[in-house]
Structure to design on (116 residues):
């Protein structure tokens, strides 16, 4: 079983930056596809960015060019660097990990608030 713990959320002004980190337990982290999702009030959870076990990345159109996902398999961490933040980026951000077609694991979430 994998446990995911996010950190790095907070309050930032529009145009600012934040870096989210997700620490994962378990010995097989490198084999997991990892992702960041977010959920704003009254909206469904949506994919923000994902990175495969091989390092391939994929981003939502709304964050392309502003957010960067990365992973450090030696430290069992995945990060999301968020630049040029906008008020519409305000949401609870969740780290997710999945091995193959198994059900994904989720972190508890971290709040990101961008003020205008």
């Amino acid at each position: 079983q994998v446990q995911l713990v996010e950190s790095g959320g907070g309050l930032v002004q529009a145009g600012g930056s934040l870096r989210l980190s997700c620490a994962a337990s378990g010995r097989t982290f490198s084999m997991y596809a990892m992702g960041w999702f977010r959920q704003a009030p009254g909206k469904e959870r949506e994919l923000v960015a994902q990175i495969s076990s091989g390092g391939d990345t994929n981003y939502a159109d709304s964050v392309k060019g502003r957010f960067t996902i990365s992973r450090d398999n030696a430290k069992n961490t995945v990060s999301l660097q968020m630049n040029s933040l906008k008020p519409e980026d305000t949401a609870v951000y969740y780290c997710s990990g999945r091995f193959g077609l198994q059900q994904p694991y989720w972190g508890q979430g971290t709040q990101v608030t961008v003020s205008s």
Q: What stands out?
A: The first strand starts at residue 4 and ends at 7.
